[in-house]
């Protein structure tokens, strides 16, 4: 790999996605000291079309239409869900619903899935899953009198399929796994793992939060059962944006949400005395949907769909390959080690590096206008979002990383990890 800045510029010149950079905010400046935002896997940039989309809902539908606008709002969760299904997740219409948070959706689908496997009393997750996933699994298991099998997983390389195979038996009801590991970016083989879990008679519930909008999920092709994910990372829907859930079509009538809200009720405006879930994906609705925020989800989902998930994934691999190549040359002599799979085919669109002073390095980078984030125990995580990050942005960020280490600038920062980055 040619690691010169000129080579990075050439990659940008040939990038078929280059035009999308101008369609998000904060990318106009091109000065040597510009902000280099490499935290798109935590919070994506604001698409330029989002403020106008929200304003239309506020000024026209709410401001002028008032309550009469509910006739168009009532189906937004499924309509935008279909945009995500087709353009982002590789699912079919009627299989994705937008609303609630990832945690709430995870709870709904996990309880529903466990109830659909009577006689099975074990839930499986990994010790390296995102904390909310592990907490929800533990809470559901406690409430239902089930057992949790928390599998060991290498925090850099992800779960070994052989370890999962050893944990699967006729007691397992649901397996909860992340498609892309939040810390290292390790990419699970969604289709192969789904087959593995199905062979044991269990259901698999995928967390796509660090995958959606960056790598293909191919849910329908894989025969995936259940999935959840957030929309504020690579889908650029904004802080606190509603999440999504996916339920394979043939499973929907067999599952019942544990949150029996009126937006999941058949003939909801009849205000009937008893809960009777509507057929289809809408049965996993609960309370009134977040109409304004769903408008932002649609903008982000359509932008990603237009760019093409396969093209985004290819660029994400190339961006992180460049970061790894530069780290090998510039950072490794300072004791920085790769903490992600080296094989790009086993990695999502973020890459992580380990160093004993990772916290201090993160603060030094932020003060030099590079925005990564820190993850325990000693990781600096870089998330170059392929929709709008250039190869020269990665090159310049790694150059600043090198200069911090060369100058020992990070030594001036206290090892105080109380501040979240």
Automatic annotation (TrEMBL):
Keyword Transmembrane applies: no
UniProt name for this protein: Kynureninase
Subunit structure: Homodimer.
Keyword vocabulary terms for this entry: Aminotransferase, Hydrolase, Pyridine nucleotide biosynthesis, Pyridoxal phosphate, Transferase
Signal peptide: none
NCBIfam families noted in UniProt: kynureninase
List of residues that carry N6-(pyridoxal phosphate)lysine: 233
Role of this protein: Catalyzes the cleavage of L-kynurenine (L-Kyn) and L-3-hydroxykynurenine (L-3OHKyn) into anthranilic acid (AA) and 3-hydroxyanthranilic acid (3-OHAA), respectively.
Family affiliation: Belongs to the kynureninase family.
Organism field: Blastococcus jejuensis
Listed EC numbers: 3.7.1.3
Top-rank lineage group of the source organism: Bacteria
PANTHER family, sorted: KYNURENINASE
InterPro entries: Kynureninase, PyrdxlP-dep_Trfase, PyrdxlP-dep_Trfase_major, PyrdxlP-dep_Trfase_small
Residues at which pyridoxal 5'-phosphate binds: 102-103, 130-133, 207, 210, 232, 262, 288
Organism lineage: Bacteria, Bacillati, Actinomycetota, Actinomycetes, Geodermatophilales
Transmembrane region(s): none
Names of required cofactors: pyridoxal 5'-phosphate
Pathway linked to the protein: Cofactor biosynthesis; NAD(+) biosynthesis; quinolinate from L-kynurenine: step 2/3; Amino-acid degradation; L-kynurenine degradation; L-alanine and anthranilate from L-kynurenine: step 1/1
An MF annotation (GO) of this entry: transaminase activity
Reactions mediated catalytically: L-kynurenine + H2O = anthranilate + L-alanine + H(+); 3-hydroxy-L-kynurenine + H2O = 3-hydroxyanthranilate + L-alanine + H(+)
Pfam families: KYNU_C
């Amino acid at each position: 790999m040619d690691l010169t800045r000129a080579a990075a510029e050439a990659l940008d010149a040939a990038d078929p996605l280059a035009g999308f950079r101008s369609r998000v905010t904060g990318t106009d400046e091109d000065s040597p000291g510009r902000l280099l935002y490499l935290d798109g896997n935590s919070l994506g940039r604001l698409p330029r079309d989002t403020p106008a989309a929200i304003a239309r809902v506020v000024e026209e539908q709410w401001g002028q239409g008032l309550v009469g606008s509910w006739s168009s709002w009532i189906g937004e969760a499924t309509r935008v869900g279909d945009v995500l299904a087709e353009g982002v997740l590789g699912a079919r219409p009627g299989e994705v619903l937008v609303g609630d948070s990832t945690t709430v959706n995870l709870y709904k689908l996990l309880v529903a899935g466990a109830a659909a496997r009577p006689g099975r009393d074990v839930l499986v997750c990994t010790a390296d899953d995102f904390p909310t996933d592990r907490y929800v699994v533990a809470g559901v298991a406690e409430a239902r009198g089930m057992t949790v099998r928390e599998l060991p997983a290498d925090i850099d390389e992800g779960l070994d399929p052989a370890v999962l195979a050893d944990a699967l038996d006729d007691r397992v009801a649901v397996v909860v796994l992340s498609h892309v590991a939040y810390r290292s970016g390790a990419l699970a083989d969604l289709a192969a793992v789904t087959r593995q879990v199905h062979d044991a008679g269990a259901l698999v519930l995928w967390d796509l939060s660090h995958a959606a909008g960056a790598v293909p999920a191919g849910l329908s092709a894989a025969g995936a059962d259940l999935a959840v994910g957030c929309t504020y990372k690579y889908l650029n829907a904004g802080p606190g944006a509603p999440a999504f859930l996916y339920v394979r079509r043939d499973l929907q009538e067999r599952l019942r949400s544990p949150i029996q809200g009126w937006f999941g009720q058949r003939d909801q405006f009849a205000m009937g005395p008893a809960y009777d879930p509507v057929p289809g994906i809408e049965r996993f609705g609960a309370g009134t949907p977040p109409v304004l925020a769903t408008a932002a989800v649609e903008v982000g989902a359509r932008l990603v769909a237009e760019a093409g998930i396969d093209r985004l994934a290819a660029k994400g691999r190339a961006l992180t390959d460049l970061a790894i190549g530069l780290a090998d040359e510039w950072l490794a002599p300072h004791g920085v080690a790769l903490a992600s799979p080296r094989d790009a085919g086993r990695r999502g669109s973020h890459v992580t590096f380990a160093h004993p002073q990772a916290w201090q390095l993160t603060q030094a980078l932020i003060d030099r206008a590079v925005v990564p984030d820190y993850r325990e125990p000693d990781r600096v995580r870089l998330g170059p979002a392929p929709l709008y990050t250039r190869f020269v942005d990665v090159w310049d960020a790694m150059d600043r990383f090198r200069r911090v280490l060369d100058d020992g600038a990070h030594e001036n920062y206290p090892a105080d990890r109380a501040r979240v980055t």
